Description:
This protein is mainly alpha-helical.
Amino acid sequence: MFKKFTNGCVRVMNRWLPDPFLFAIILTIVVFIAAMIGTQQSPIQLIWTWGGMGGTATGMWNLLAFSMQMALVLVLGSALASAKICKNILSSLAGLAKDKRSAIVVTTMVSTICCWLNWGFGLIVGALLAKEVARRVRDVDYPLLIASAYSGFVIWHAGLSGSIPLALGGAGYTVALTGQTFMAETTATILHPMNLIMCLVILLVMPFVNYAMHPDKEHTVTVDPSVLVDEKERTYTIDTPAEKIEHSKILWAIVCLMGFVYIVWFFWTKKTFVLDLNIVNCIFLFLGLLAHGDLRKYVDAIGDAAGGSAGILLQFPFYAGIMGLMTAANANGVSLASIISDFFVSISNTVTFPVFTFLSAGIVNFFVPSGGGQWAVQGPIVMPASIDVGVEAGRAAMAIAWGDQWTNMIQPFWALPALGVAGLKAKDIMGYLVVVLIFTGIVACLGFLGWGLFFPG
């Protein structure tokens, strides 16, 4: 019965899910129409917002910095992994996978742990590990293996790099309209017993849920051998002065030294091991330089990896435009995102408030697939409402965080880096991720109900 349901999801996604770029276009049109109806704004007003309002902080160009960061996560991570020493490390880790079951379980657990530690790191490591596992276990279903690697991303916002809990635990969050400030230590968010229990259940159970979806031999899609073929190692001639400079060990050593001095100094001055995208990319960059041991080799490795970032560069402006449409407010301050959030808040009580917040955040995240964007949209609505309902700030904020990460499973936006590494399309893995979505949604709903019943206040 379970496999029939899974196979049905896979068939539906393969048949109906378009290319992620076309998916973004369809979402744009749907949100545009919904915003017109819900907020009573004119088409011209919404188009102006969608396009960027002449350069303000909404619209298509609002994610340019983030797009570059994400492209670098993919390119720098792939370039690092192509170094001989990293291939050996990944190969050793992949050696834990002896058959189809261990291949899925190992890939899922490693990816989940890495994503909990840092989402950018986990996103790329999971996909790279999956490719290495596929080299060893050739009869494993490759789309399911990549889906398993991506499934670990479902707990990133409940982990150490979660932007919402980190904001509350730092300077706090102030609602501009009311002036209210909300703060919560990490012991009330990331390290709260209920949050850790929910993460642990997903870490321990999800690998076996993923394996239970493995198709029979007749329907198994094994990896295309061409995806796993590494290009022959380049040979270099070092005859001219220019070539000697390109392969200079002195220049290589100087730039590596400067990079690692900066990284060490960064963590020393911060006095905490909190990773944002910039420092993750910085670590990838200088580890890649160090691992390749040569400036020219690293330049070529970057060139080989850059093609995989095409989807990110094309699609992220359209998702930024969708975010602009979702948050575009009329003269009364009403936006499509606020309509969704207000509805769920209005039907909540002390116990159900986080559950309904989680569900509303999952819906909003489908159209605003960004942790920071999600917080900007729902924070001003949910946090003041939590006081009226009697729910503490940490629990309310984590409900948004869990909703934000939940529907990433069926939103191609975040899967693009993993798909670029794996050489697959979104429709190849989304059928399996529908099942992951259902499983993790049940865990989250039960978890927040338990949070309210056993850890009130």
